[in-house]
Structures are given as C-alpha cells and as structure tokens.
Design brief:
This protein has about 100 residues and is mainly alpha-helical. It is about 80% helix and about 0% strand. It is built from 5 helices and no strands. Helix 1 runs antiparallel to helix 2. The longest helix is centred in the middle third of the chain and has 23 residues.
Length: about 100
C-alpha cells in the first residue's frame, strides 16, 4: 500500500472515531463516519483496479486518487463546527493585537 493511501486511511479513520467521542448530533457523527467509509472504499477499489484495468491505468488512478480524497477530511472536520466560540475568538484577537504591536 502506498504512503499517501495510509495517510488518508489513518486520518479519515481518526476523524470518524473522534466524532463518536465528541458531543455531536447523531446525524453529524454518521456523516463523518460515512465520509470515512467512502474514502476507505475508494482506496480499496483503486487498489483492486489493477485486476480489471490495464496496469498502467490502475497506476494513474492510484496516483491521482489521494488528490481527490483530500477534500474528505475537510468535509469531515466541517461537521465538528457547530458554532462560534467567543472565548477563543477573544484570545486569538488579543494574540493578534500583541503580535502586531511588537512588529
């Protein structure tokens, strides 16, 4: 298995597992898990594509699939956003003010 495939599998799986340990709505948890399953299935199909595609074409699919699947973790992470955090925003704004005063 290629390194990019491993990275993708681990990342989407960790996000899916995390969604079940966070206080999220059930629908959001299922979306995160479903997206992980789509990514895992796509990688499995790409690996198996050597059996029905010419070997050269299979390599092309496996080379470009990580680029297409790069969006999946972004969609997963988007499910964790449930609203703004005024406390964190105030901390970041204070940090920005202190940083730009020093510059």
């Amino acid at each position: 298995m290629r390194v990019a495939e491993w990275i993708q599998l681990v990342f989407v799986s960790l996000l899916a597992a995390t969604s079940w340990f966070r206080p999220l709505e059930r629908a959001r948890q299922l979306r995160v898990t479903g997206l992980a399953l789509v990514a895992i299935a796509a990688i499995a199909l790409a690996r198996a594509s050597g059996q029905w595609l010419w070997l050269h074409n299979s390599g092309i699919v496996r080379d470009w699939l990580p680029a297409a699947l790069l969006l999946v973790p972004y969609w997963q992470i988007g499910q964790f956003f449930t609203g703004s955090d005024p406390t964190m925003e105030a901390r970041l704004a204070a940090f920005d003010r202190s940083l730009f005063r020093m510059a």
